[in-house]
Amino acid sequence: MDPAMFFSLLLLLLPLYFLLRHKSSRRLPPGSLGLPIIGQSISFLHAMRENTAEQWLQNRIRKYGPIWKMSLFGKPTVFLSGQAANKFIYTCDCSILVNQKPLSVRRICGDRNILELSGLEHKRVRGALVSFLKPEVLRQYVRKMDERIRKHFEMHWHGKQKVSAMPLMKILTFNIMSSLIIGIEGGAKRDVLVELFQQLIKGALSVPINFPFTRFSRSLQASRKIRMIIMDLIHERRAAQKQQPAFPQQDLITGLLSLRNEDFLVALSDEEIADNAITIMIAGHDTISVLLTLLIRLLANDQAVYAGIAQEQEEVAKSKASGEFLTWDDLARMKYTWRVALECLRMTPPVFNSFRKVLKDFEYEGYVIPKGWQVTWAACMTHMDESLFPDPTKFDPNHFEKKIPPYSLVAFGGGARICPGYEFARLETLITIHHLVNKFTWKLCCPGINFSRDPMPTFKDGLEIEIKPKIPVEVN
C-alpha cells in the first residue's frame, strides 16, 4: 500500500477507534438500539396492541437482565425494572433525571405541563394543581360528582338491555372532567371536545413523524383545536372574574386563574394553564374510564368479589334516606371496594410505561447511562413480582389489606411524584361502582373477550354487556 494512502486511512480510522474505545469504556447497558429513529418503536407498539407488551419486556429481561438499552420513539432508551429502580426513579435528584414524555406526548400536551417539569418549576405547578385536587377541597365535589353519575345512569343505562361499557365509561369520565376541570357542563362545545380528545389520545404514543394522515399528524391537529377552545375559556373566565370574582374551587381553570403570588406558588401563565388542563383531562379521562371498565368486566366474571362489593355498597345505601347524596364519610366506608380497584390497577395498570430524560451521565448498577438518553420503566414489572405480591397472577384484593411496601404499586406513581389526581380518581371510581352495583346486574356478551393497548387498554366491542335493573335496596 502506498505510504501516503496508508497514513490517510490511519487518520480516518483513528477517530473511529477512539470513539469506539470511549463508548466501550462507558459500560453501557446491554441491548440494541436497532434502526435509526425507528429503533424498537414499531415492535413495541405492535406488542402493546396485541396485549403482549409485558412478554415483550420479559423476553428482553431474560436476554439482557433487568437493565438494558433500546431505542424508543426516536431516542436511545434504558429500561430499568424492580422496586429499587422505581424508588431510584421517583426520588432521583432532578439534576440527573427529569420528567420527559416521548416527543409525541410533548408536542401534543405542551412543554409546560406537570409531566415535563422538574425541580422548583414542578413544585410550583404541582402546588397549583394540588390546591384544587387535595382532599379537603374535593370534599366539596362529592355531591356534584354524585349528581352527574346518577344522571349518567338515568340517561345512558336505564331502559336498555345491552350497553357498551367502555364508551359509556368514557362519556361519564369525560363529562365529569369537563365539568370540574374546564367548567363545561354540556352542549355542542363539549361534544366537539369529546371527539377531539379521542383523536388526540390515539396519537399520543406514536412515532413522531408528522406526515399527513398519520396518527401523530391527526393528534397534533386535535391538540391545536383543543388548545384554542381552552384559551378562549381562559380569556372568558378572566373577564368574568374582573366583573365578579368566583370561588377558586369552581373548576380547575377558574381556580388556577385565582391563584396569587404566595411563596413559590407564582400564578400560572395562560399557556401553563392550557397545557396542564389538557394533560389532566387526558390522564383523568382515560385512566379512570379504563379502571371502571376493567372493574365491570371483573365483577361479571368473579362472583365472590362481586358479592363482597355488593354487600358493602348495599350497607352504605341502606344508611341513606331515599334520594340522599353520598358524602365523603360514606366513601371512607368503601374499603373493600377500593382494595378491589387497587388490585385491578395492579393487574392491569392503565399506563403501561413512563419516561424520564437523563440530564447528565450517571451510574446505576455498574452501568453508565449517558446524558441525553431517556429512562423508561413499566409498572407491571413490580406489580407481578411475587416477592412483593404473593401469587401475583391471582386476583386477590387481600394484597392491599395491609400496607404494601413502598414503590411496589406505581400505577399512580410514587413518593413525591404520586399523581395529584389520586383522590379525584378514588372518588369517581367509588361513586360510580356504588350506583352500578345497587342499580343493575349484568353479564358479558362475550365472556372470553380480552383487550389491546392503543396505548391504553381498549376492548374491540367496547365490552358489551347485558344489563337488568336491580330491585332497589330497602331504606330504613
UniProtKB/TrEMBL annotation:
It holds the Pfam family p450. SUPFAM superfamilies: Cytochrome P450 (SSF48264). Keywords: Heme, Iron, Membrane, Metal-binding, Monooxygenase, Oxidoreductase, Signal, Transmembrane, Transmembrane helix. GO terms for molecular function: heme binding; iron ion binding; monooxygenase activity; oxidoreductase activity, acting on paired donors, with incorporation or reduction of molecular oxygen. Heme binds at C419. It is a single-pass membrane protein. GO terms for biological process: sterol metabolic process. The keyword Iron applies. GO terms for cellular component: membrane. Residues 1-25 form the signal peptide. It is found in: Membrane. Its cofactor is heme. Its main location: membrane. The keyword Metal-binding applies. Belongs to the cytochrome P450 family. This is Cytochrome P450. It comes from Dovyalis caffra. The lineage of its organism: Eukaryota, Viridiplantae, Streptophyta, Embryophyta, Tracheophyta.
